[in-house]
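hey so u asked for the seq, here:
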Amino acid sequence: MRPAVVLLVLASLGTGCKEPPAAKPPEPFSAPIVQPPVEQGEIWGPQDEHNTRVVRRIFHDALVAETGDDSLMRRDAHPKHHACVRARLEVDTKRLRPDYRHGLFAQDGEYEAWVRFSNGDSDRHKDDDEPNFRGMAIKVMKVPYRSYLSEVGLERDNPVHDLVLLNSPTFFIGDTTEYAEFMRAVAKGGLALAGFSMRHGENIKIIQKSRKMKVGNVLDVDYHSATPYKLGSTSMRMQMHSCTDVAHKRPRRPSPNFLAERLEASLAQGEHCFVFYLQPNEDPERNPIEDPLRSWDLETSPLVEVGRLTVLQQTGARAPDQQAMCEHLSFNPWRAPSANRPMGQANRVRLEVYTNQAKLRHDHNEAEEPRPLTLEIEPATR
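ran it, structure tokens below
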């Protein structure tokens, strides 16, 4: 891969890294973050804790530098949302083995939800027809359990379950050492980025494949958890498969925000669905927890249909008050019960980074994070 191409790819990964400001930025979230005990082959030790502090510091300083004097601090990754839209999640456990029925999948249920569709690039001004990651984040409301974040005291009780998905079946970072190396390279730029790419060709292939996906409507895309999550005595990955029969083609002369425009227009005409699948890990030897770069074989670990996400027919998806709520929402994969908690080193890094970045953003914006439990719009003020 040519160095110029490498730099272009890596610079658009959503880190928002720039030279740190001259003034000392606010310190990262200082509350102790409790990592769960390792299980099912997870690996975690003092070096991983050190690497995570490095990653968290770089993310933190980069977001402060990116914001500068702006009164609004946006997300460092996925800052451009197309809309947050109303949805319904139905969970159907009849196809799931009884010993896999835990957490969200312990019983059949129907839940209201908010769904945020987004672009992953740190440049929120980038046109929608340019190469980019695509994200789907789901806030499932009024679930009958506490999240891990509540269990360990990182936030007050809030009966919601966040699902954080993207248009890649695998994650692009394997472990904490790789994460720290990547973030240092992004912060330094130039030859450091080129050097990372030369040593980690598999990571770059995952990035390129996701960014090059041609998307005509975010409702047409299949979304993946990419990393493993706990499911009883085993692990799982999750997928949302679009019900679209024929995907929309991209317009010949797309507007900069054509994906938002098409999302709003599509939902004004009718509802849209995604089929919800789990992929229980039936072969842990072949599918180790600490290798999120690897896809799991569908023959030995087949998909199991466990429900449906219906994005409801609606108007006003891009109305100012709804867009404001969308801006101030946060999604954290650890906002899930311990029975379905994220697994592996990449996810343990996310626990600390997501928690710190959300607090930093809401403190800067002087806006209370919306904590919706209905499909009504909540004000985002203190």
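The domain at 3-365 is CATH 2.40.180.10 (Catalase HpII,  Chain A, domain 1). The first strand starts at residue 80 and ends at 91.
lmk if thats what u needed
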